Amino acid sequence: NKRFHTGQVIMMLSRFSKHLWRQITPPSITTSQQRPAKCWWWLVSSRSCVTSSSSQPQSIRSIIDSEGLAPVPRDIVVKGWVKSVRKHRNLLFLHVNDGSCQSNIQVVADDNRSDDDIIVHYDSAVEIKGQLVESPARQQKYELRAAEINVIGDCDPLTYPFDVRSHHPVQYVRQYPHLRSRRDFFNAILRVRSKVMMHLHKFFQERSYVHITTPVISSSDCEGGGELFNVNSNNTIDLEKTLTDTPNPSASQSKYFFDVPTYLTVSGQLHLETAIGGFDKVYTFGPTFRAENSQTRHHLSEFYMVEAELAFTESLTDITAVMQDCLKTVVESTLRDCSEELETVSRSLSNRDNFNVLTKIQDNEFITLSYTEAVEILSKTFSNLPNWGDDLQKEHEKFLVEHCDGIPVLLVDFPQSLKPFYARRNGVNGNRPTVSAVDMLVPGVGELFGGSLREERLDELRNNIKILGMKEMDWYSDLRRFGSVPHGGFGMGFERLLQLILGVTNIRDTIPFPRFPHSCQL
């Protein structure tokens, strides 16, 4: 009884004819050469091509998120990289990933190829047009029935270092830093890295911390360890020649680009303290550099640090409370948002226990031990036991966490000789002066956080500088002269945090482009 206008009838017939044409017409593939008539979509030449599509591609992430909201079947376009290829009877199955999430989408098409044809290669970039339908398989909700495949960029299997049928060990993949993000293991790590970085910023922003961008080039050695990268211009020779050729060089002329020796920063903490005079809570998040000649899996020459400073605090407990809250919050958020990526990493490492490690961090209050108590515990186990005043080694730090049933340890009240000049002095216990400093030790990593109350008393600060034989920094002393307040802060190694969350033992696997002695690829 329903009436239709002529235009509506024509539109309905047009749609029906298109649907019928899809059912009887084999899928096609666009290449740089016209293929013989016998070729189906799967048959491609070895030359790649770039094609344009009027349809906007849909991400795999949006397909997953729209489950139950958007109608199926529906026509879609997906662009991505081929991650697996297999044939079953007369069907070909591709897994394609577009980089929007860890999950792949399965592509299904008919196979009618001859022996002299070349298939789509592993990790080739493709554009797929087809119909999204509900999948009969249990592994996925949807699959894509291909109508057309366009090869955007071929991947030559003869020279490509990775093979779809091979399990490449992590050590092998490390040789190709420019390609390793294509491997599931490193791809998942970099996704988690991005999320954790976002969660850290969110943690501080939600608690009214002001983000301060501290400089990468510095004229001070914050840690006092001397493991610095010097910075100078490549026209240093010209500067020195100018000084030599000038009869009476002015005081402003120098062989240094900045007129003083400068270094790549080892910490943003000293600069962060300058902001405490105007803000009550500040933080910074950026790269730091150490010229430590170490080839172990625990060290990087370039890494990232999260550092924070709090004004008007006279208790180390205030500092440790923020450290504990920060770790718990980030772990909880990452478990919630990165479950698929964490599962991928755990499966690659065969490390299922790491979820229990993270759960224990969430469910327990951290244990506080004094440095003196730690030395007493270690003396009962280690033959190379540390004496009071010795720095603890990584094996000592890990043992203390294991001794406390895998619960993170807050190690406090260190000998003054082990901490930087700015750590606030507690007092003297016999011949053992200590400072209000703390290290947070975590499973599998050892030290993750390091913090202290800062010495706000100018006389004490000057005395510390004198004892260490350092040169007084006038600007740093000014912070104590003009409106100084009790304050404290901490720093956390970002890549060490990722090691903890991911269960990765080699810190070089947690950063996109690792820098370490004798290695600066790319």
Helix vs. strand class: alpha+beta
Radius of gyration: 30 Å
Unreliable residue runs? 18-26, 28-54
What does the overall shape look like?
Answer: elongated
The pLDDT mean sits at 84
User: Termini separation (Å)?
Assistant: 72 Å
The strand count comes to 18
| Structure annotation, total helices | 14
Largest sheet descriptor? 9 strands, mixed
Relative helix content: 25-40%
Indicate the proportion of strand residues: 15-25%
Describe the structure.
The protein is an alpha+beta fold and 522 residues long. 30% of the residues lie in helices and 24% in strands. It is built from 14 helices and 18 strands. It has helices spanning 6-24, 60-65, 170-173, 184-206, 236-245, 269-274, 316-337, 339-349, 354-363, 371-379, 394-403, 458-467, 474-481, 494-502; strands at 28-30, 74-88, 91-97, 105-110, 125-134, 142-153, 210-211, 217-218, 230-231, 262-264, 281-289, 302-311, 367-370, 409-415, 425-429, 432-442, 446-453, 487-493. The strands form three sheets. Strands 7, 11, 12, 13, 14, 15, 16, 17 and 18 form a nine-stranded mixed beta sheet that branches. Helix 4 crosses helix 7 (316-337) and helix 4 (184-206) crosses helix 8. The protein is elongated and about 85 Å long. The N and C termini lie far apart (72 Å). 33% of the residues are buried. Residues 18-26 and 28-54 have low confidence and may be disordered.
